[in-house]
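Journal club prep — side note

Before the paper discussion, L.F. wants everyone to see what a predicted structure for a comparable chain looks like in token form. Sequence:
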Amino acid sequence: MNVEQRPSEKEFSATMTDYIIDSDAGVTFAVKYNNKTILEEEYIPDADFKIKVRKLGKFCAQALWGQWCPGQTCLQSTVAGTFSFYVNGSLDTSSYVLFSRLQTNKQAATAVWLSEVNRKITRPGSKEYASMVIGTGQTVQVTVKKNDGTTTSARTLYTHTETLSPVTVDASLARIASLFTISQDLIRSYVLSVAGQSFEFPVDHTRYTEIWQFRCKNVYDMPEVLTAVGGLTVKGSNESETAAMFEVDRKFAVKVTDEYTAHSGVIFLQSDYKLWHNLLNAQEVQVYIAGVWYSIVITKHTYEREFRRSTLKAVEFSFRMANPEQNNLIEL
């Protein structure tokens, strides 16, 4: 028996390497996570004397999930973990697996930022999250570029004291301005850096009539926020049952099913489309209303992107409240 291919030391679940074992006899294959056996099966070789364990990453992903970040820092200990693989009862290898819903071009061995982009437009008043894989003793450094062209010296936003793990930090403009004790209006952009890799937040200071914030769990199940500045409309509707009472028709069990349509407004970067694509295809999406996040369900969308042209078309999508009883909360 010989193992020809096995997962690397660090993998994303959606792109995880398959196991290929060369053997002329059946083998027992097992997976352990958190000291518990979560898979134990016996495999027999094919006509080429190969045993192939496919989609192992998809299986591992079922034990991983990301969390919303309620404070300034959130240790995402459940979105990644070490899986141990046993062949015929003996440990063959262990792999640190990071959740990913879709395949990615990122190399897990060198990945730091758990986002599809490393440059993102932010706006005053908007919440921002930055998620990364960070090791013991590493820090998140931030520098600010002001409107006058000067750049500040770096300051520490977060210091990691735990073992290697994904972490989400609040990277909102308001927090950065507070860290440097300067006005938000003076900040042109700011850059977060970890282990030599950076994430830039250019600031759009345009005054919009209304700004709607939506957050989702992205490809890596990490929270990410997008703002729609093109307005919000509502199309009222409801579902109900009608029955006669004392020979008079009445409505019963009225369920409000209003549908809202949000317009992204101006899009500045081609990379923004990746973020919108994440949001429109996310399993969990929320809208920010009066200081509280409420779950929504996206029902349809208009998403067009021209890769080789500079035309940046706005994104439009419709949604309804996940809880129909919350349809009275959005005030237009």
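L.F.'s comment for the group: The mean pLDDT is 93. Keep this in mind when we get to the figures.
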